[in-house]
Write a structure and sequence with these properties.
The complex is a heterodimer of chains A (184) and B (181). Chain A is 81% helix and 0% strand. Chain A is an all-alpha fold and 184 residues long. Chain A has 2 domains: 99 residues, no CATH class; 74 residues, no CATH class. Chain B has 7 helices and no strands. The chains are: A mainly alpha (184), B mainly alpha (181).
Amino acid sequence: MKHRDVGLWDLYISFFKIGGLTFGGGYAMLPMLQREVITKHGWVTEEEVLDIYAIGQCTPGIIAVNTATMIGYRKRGILGAIVATLGEVSPSLIIITLLATVLFHVQDVMWVQRAFGGIRVAVCVLITQSVITLAKKSLIDIPTILLYLAVVLATFFFALSPILVVLFAIVFGLCVQAVKRRAS
Amino acid sequence: MIYLQLFWEFFKIGLFSIGGGLATLPFLYALAETHPHWLTAKQIADMIAVSESTPGPIGINMATFAGYQAAGLAGGLIATLGEITPSVIIIIFIARFLGRFDKNQHVKDAFYALRPAVVGLISYAGLMLLSVTVFPEQQFKLKEAVLYAVLVVLVLRFKKAHPLLWIVLGAIAGLLFALPS
């Protein structure tokens, strides 16, 4: 399956482009990913990309990183996985470091503070939008709605650790689905 | 050794945040509580804004930013490496031994509950952000509340608009109405 002819440098550059030209991650990366790894290089097929993307969503960590690691691994083994992943995150490292440095120097300027006063509200709005979109897809029955409410209350009012929430949800999902299957 | 601590904290974020960029947010808020000298809840809001308005995966942008905030240039690099290390290990393991991991029935069962739990965690992050923006130090900020309500209505009306648009509108409103009020 492994094509030794795929160069490590090509992998790095391709994923560097994907990382550097995708705004927002998640689904936003699919068009760029398809262009680079299917159309341009023919490293994987359309179906493979969707499978890899589906696996990337079901594993811990950033979806874009998981996808890069998987394609890199299929093409050039462990080294390919590492190189593709580093390519994916390199633009972020460069751009964010530069911006953070600039912001650090201008953060006390009056108009910057005012702009960020409004931007913070806009970010609240963006998160609200994400929550509504995601809730429509994942709050599908009474157990999932109850779990959602319990998580919000436990984290916001009792500062329950997100790690414990994730572990609890895994156990909860396995139990509820097992009970449902037994009942039917 | 701050670099080792940073690597470990972001390694945990990479390991337990499931479902993409915004899913790392609740972990950043937890980090702001355990390590207040690294980053504050208010700074996280600015990080989200910058991460949404620049290219690259949001989760990685926020890790770089948070690491930079905590320990400068090397901090940003180490936080990002910490966050991607679990992914690389887990994905290589799956590619080698598990194949179509997402088709596994136990994985599907777990995700039935993981999805709403992650929405709950993102809601928690949103509430934290809203509370520092609209209710800082128990004070109700009317201007921010009105701006929030207006923008929510607009966002729900124009769903396809790019997030950057709302951030720019927010910045303009901030300048016009002299926020934070």
